[in-house]
């Protein structure tokens, strides 16, 4: 607590203004505004001593929690702790008569949760005149402790049908605002291990229930981070590797667990031409769970391999564990580039082929495109020696469900930047676009910048 006299507590809010003003004549008082501070008592009333307690010569303390409203009045008073219930009503009656200079938030009056220990001491009965404020700083009103928002019960998100065969574990970490009513507002995705998890996580959040943050009796809006986690039911690490065409090459080592495992970009020109390919690569998952040392069974460099390399370099694993902790292991992966006519990409192929009806841009949409999650491009490992800056321009379709599809590299200062940018964009998720109230596919182009990583 402050060493200032109780009667001067309100002056503390302005103390720093005086101090700053003394630092130099160039600083004018008009340049400084006070925009925060707790509520400060300006009318305090000592409680009436209960007759039953007086006769029994009882003493006690009642901690009262209450709200100071915008006009400085006290509402929502309640007993927090009490040494004896005989004092409770007298304490509440006294607090109802108190008045405050309200708290400030952003230079505006704001409601605030407060608490105050109300003392009942037999010495009070011998006072000739009640004091204007408590004589002991310990019994001055103060801001109540804030309690964070809490989820009510656990989440049980529906596993995306799109990933049923892959059986990947995953997580979507979100920043949310829980309002005073316990409802979630303004969810923002901070990270998603796969775009298929984003829609399901947001849908799960819509039915989630929270106890709002509190400052004493006052519920308040609060921002918090919240993860929604996904598990493939009954999937063991070895099953996940097999389901994703991964083979462990290191003998006697533990099994790494895929965490981020995006699909390679299907080169659009080859997709439109109906061309297929089968690509096999080997790579290392190091002790930090990152991928490195990618090599291909076929030494010839192709766009298939470039797309595959960019995908592998973006993958992340829970590392394998040996007897002494995390260890590096070697894996092999085989991926088949085969267009599926029933897939979301397949539906767009006919429209994008020469002579097709095409796909319109963002002009004329009912509202601006709203990104929900944008995956981060991984700086190409093959360029970490020279460490150049670079950029790429990528064209892609935001489909009617909000997913990035049919990605094409328009230009890039280096091929590696183009494929790394394309791989990242396949992870992007948007609010489903609407045109004249109907779901719409939208063709867009965006630039992606690369800065060299720190040494």
Q: What is the 3D form?
A: elongated
* Sheet with most strands: strand arrangement: 4-3-8-9
Question: What's the CATH topology label of the largest domain?
Answer: TolA/TonB C-terminal domain
Largest sheet: 4 strands, antiparallel
CATH superfamily of the largest domain: TonB
Number of domains: 4
Q: Termini, distance in Å?
A: 47 Å
Q: What is the structural class?
A: alpha+beta
Condensed summary:
The protein has 9 helices and 32 strands.
Care to describe what's here?
The chain is an alpha+beta fold. The protein has 4 domains: 6-144, 2-Layer Sandwich (TolA/TonB C-terminal domain); 150-230, TonB (TolA/TonB C-terminal domain); 237-337, 2-Layer Sandwich (TolA/TonB C-terminal domain), CATH 3.30.2420; 344-450, 2-Layer Sandwich (TolA/TonB C-terminal domain), CATH 3.30.2420.10. It contains 9 helices and 32 strands. The strands form 12 sheets. The chain has a 4-stranded antiparallel sheet, covered by helices on one side. A 4-stranded antiparallel sheet has the order 18-25-20-21. Strand 30 and strand 31 form a beta hairpin. Helix 7 (303-314) crosses helix 9 (415-425). The two termini are 47 Å apart. The model is unreliable at 1-33 (pLDDT under 50).
């Amino acid at each position: 607590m402050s060493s200032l006299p109780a009667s001067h507590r309100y002056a503390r809010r302005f103390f720093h203004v005086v101090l700053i003003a003394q630092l130099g004549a160039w600083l004018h008082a008009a340049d400084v505004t006070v925009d925060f501070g707790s509520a400060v008592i300006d009318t305090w009333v000592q409680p009436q001593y209960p007759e039953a307690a007086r006769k029994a010569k009882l003493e006690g303390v009642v901690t009262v929690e209450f709200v100071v409203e915008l006009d400085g009045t006290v509402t929502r008073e309640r007993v927090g702790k009490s040494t004896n219930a005989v004092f409770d009503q007298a304490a509440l009656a006294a607090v109802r008569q108190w008045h405050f200079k309200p708290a400030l938030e952003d230079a505006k009056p704001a409601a605030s949760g407060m608490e105050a220990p109300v003392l009942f001491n037999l010495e009070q009965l011998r006072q000739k005149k009640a004091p204007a404020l408590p004589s002991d700083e310990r019994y001055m009103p103060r801001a109540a402790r804030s309690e964070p928002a809490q989820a009510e019960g656990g989440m049980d998100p529906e596993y995306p049908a799109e990933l049923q065969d892959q059986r990947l574990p995953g997580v979507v970490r979100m920043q949310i605002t829980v309002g005073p009513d316990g409802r979630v507002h303004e969810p923002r995705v901070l990270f998603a291990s796969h775009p298929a998890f984003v829609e399901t996580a947001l849908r799960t959040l819509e039915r989630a229930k929270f106890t709002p943050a509190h400052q004493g009796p006052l519920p308040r809006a609060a921002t918090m981070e919240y993860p929604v986690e996904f598990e493939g039911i009954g999937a063991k690490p070895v099953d996940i590797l097999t389901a994703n065409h991964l083979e462990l090459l290191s003998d006697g080592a533990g099994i790494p667990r895929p965490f981020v495992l995006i699909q390679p970009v299907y080169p659009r020109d080859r997709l439109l031409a109906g061309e297929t390919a089968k690509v096999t690569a080997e790579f290392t998952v190091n002790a930090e769970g990152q991928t490195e040392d990618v090599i291909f069974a076929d030494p010839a460099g192709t766009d298939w391999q470039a797309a595959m390399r960019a995908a592998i370099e973006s993958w992340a694993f829970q590392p394998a564990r040996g007897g002494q902790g995390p260890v590096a292991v070697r894996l092999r992966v085989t991926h088949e580039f085969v267009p599926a006519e029933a897939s979301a990409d397949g539906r767009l192929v006919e429209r994008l082929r020469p002579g097709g009806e095409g796909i319109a841009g963002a002009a004329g949409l009912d509202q601006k495109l709203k990104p929900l999650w944008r995956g981060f491009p991984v700086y190409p490992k093959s360029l970490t020696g020279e460490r150049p800056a670079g950029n790429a321009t990528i064209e892609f379709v935001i489909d009617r469900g909000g997913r990035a599809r049919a990605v094409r590299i328009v230009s890039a200062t280096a091929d590696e930047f183009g494929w790394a940018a394309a791989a990242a964009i396949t992870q992007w998720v948007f609010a489903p676009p609407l045109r004249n109230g109907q779901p719409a596919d939208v063709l867009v182009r965006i630039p992606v910048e690369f800065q060299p990583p720190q040494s």
